[in-house]
Amino acid sequence: MRAFLFQGAAMSEMFYLLFIGNAVVLCGAAALGAYLMSRGDEAQARAEAEARRNERC
Prior knowledge:
Low-confidence stretches: none
Radius of gyration: 25 Å
């Protein structure tokens, strides 16, 4: 009986760690995506400013 309870505790702990790990991975992916999108926006703004500067000349 004691082994069965221990196995149940180990399984619930494993699912808990799996859930936390999954949440960390998803949050990391979302943060990375937002960072890369902001870098893309900066690059596009820089390119548009350069194009406007070249139009004037």
